[in-house]
């Protein structure tokens, strides 16, 4: 890990040297390999070291061309300041990822039978099945087939469309991000396909959020049932982490994505007339 080096006040850049009275510092880049010919040096600016701005001095070739930029109060050129941000963002993201992995590992208490909450695993696997795509697709198609009212058919048809949309969008994001499932997960899931080996986002979480919103909006439910729907959605998401299927961030993003997916279902809402027109055109 490169360490900060004290820089001689009179120097306008160049390789860092030891010893200084007013505390100007030169930092080697935290994210780039040490390459003296091209790597920019970070040079601490400002009269008061505690409030100094980080300034990127330039490589030797650029310093000759613009000596005023090495010590000017106007601050570093735009592209130099942008180079500082990625290292800070990278450190922040790495820290968040480490917290995510650590928390998820600690919460994976039902990951296998001999985990601390191993006895709860069968119940969590039932919750997992209740949030799986196949039971929801089959159940919705059955209700659509058995429905004898236009309103019921309209609601079930749009729920079916939403479930298909959810699978496609989650499959795309999983295939793009390709984040592996947690190491402590046992791949004994109910009916998995292709991109399902990936962890981000949690399809159960997207489905729980989208279907939860859908049921609360389009079904007339008594207050206790509405609370039950909300609890089910939260429990499905929680079960993903308890079973070790996902990290916390997979589920949190899944809830957000499922919440937004419902807005898309509302935007693409298929009325019976639209469907009859579409079927008429196909016939
Ligand atoms: C080609 C297609 C459409 C494949 C379907 C696989 C898929 C996207 C499953 C959704 O995840 P999930 O429902 O298994 O949930 P989780 O990610 O929480 O395991």
Structure write-up:
This protein is mostly helical and 283 residues long. The chain has a domain at 122-186 and 196-281. Helix content is 56%, strand content 5%. The protein is built from 10 helices and 4 strands; from the N terminus they run ββββαααααααααα. α5 runs antiparallel to α6 (150-177), α7 crosses α9 (248-267) and α8 (223-242) packs across α9. The longest helix is centred in the N-terminal third of the chain and has 30 residues, at 78-107. It is globular. Bound molecules: geranyl diphosphate. Geranyl diphosphate (GPP) binds next to α6 and α7. It comes from Channa argus. Residues 154-266 form the Phosphatidic acid phosphatase type 2/haloperoxidase domain.
Intertermini distance: 69 Å
Q: Which distinct ligands sit in these coordinates? A: geranyl diphosphate
The count of helical stretches stands at 10
The arrangement of helices and strands along the chain is EEEEHHHHHHHHHH
Summarize model confidence as the mean pLDDT: 78
Radius of gyration over C-alpha positions, nearest whole angstrom = 28 Å
The assembly state of the depicted protein chains is single chain
**Beta-strand segment tally:** 4
**Uncertain stretches of 5 or more adjacent residues:** 1-34, 38-72
Globally, the shape reads globular
The helix/strand class is mainly alpha
- Main sheet? 4 strands, antiparallel
In order across it, which strands form the biggest sheet?
Answer: 1-2-3-4
Strand content: under 5%
DSSP helix fraction: 55-70%
GO molecular function, one term: sphingosine-1-phosphate phosphatase activity
Domain Phosphatidic acid phosphatase type 2/haloperoxidase: 154-266
Keywords: Endoplasmic reticulum, Hydrolase, Lipid metabolism, Membrane, Nucleus, Transmembrane, Transmembrane helix
Family: Belongs to the PA-phosphatase related phosphoesterase family.
């Amino acid at each position: 890990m490169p360490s900060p080096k004290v820089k001689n006040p009179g120097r306008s850049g160049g390789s860092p040297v030891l010893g200084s009275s007013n505390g100007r510092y030169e930092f080697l880049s935290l994210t780039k390999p040490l390459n003296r010919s091209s790597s920019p040096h970070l040079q601490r600016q400002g009269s008061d070291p505690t409030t100094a701005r980080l300034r990127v001095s330039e490589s030797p070739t650029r310093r000759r061309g613009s000596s005023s930029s090495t010590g000017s109060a106007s601050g570093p050129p735009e592209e130099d300041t942008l180079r500082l941000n990625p290292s800070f963002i990278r450190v922040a993201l790495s820290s968040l990822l480490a917290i995510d992995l650590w928390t998820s590992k600690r919460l994976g208490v039902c990951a296998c039978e001999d985990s601390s909450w191993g006895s709860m695993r069968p119940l969590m696997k039932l919750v997992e099945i209740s949030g799986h795509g196949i039971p929801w697709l089959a159940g919705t198609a059955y209700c659509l087939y058995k429905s004898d009212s236009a309103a019921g058919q309209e609601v079930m048809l749009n729920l079916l469309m939403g479930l298909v949309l959810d699978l496609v969008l989650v499959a795309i994001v999983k295939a793009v991000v390709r984040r592996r499932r947690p190491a402590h997960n046992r791949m004994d899931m109910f009916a998995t396909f292709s991109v399902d080996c990936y962890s981000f986002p949690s399809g159960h979480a997207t489905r729980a959020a989208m279907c939860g919103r859908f049921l609360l909006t389009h079904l007339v439910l008594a207050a206790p049932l509405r609370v039950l729907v909300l609890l089910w959605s939260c429990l499905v998401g929680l079960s993903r982490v308890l079973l070790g299927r996902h990290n916390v961030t997979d589920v949190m993003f899944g809830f957000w994505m499922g919440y937004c997916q419902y807005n898309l279902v509302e935007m693409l809402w298929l009325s019976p007339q639209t469907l009859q027109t579409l079927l008429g055109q196909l016939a």
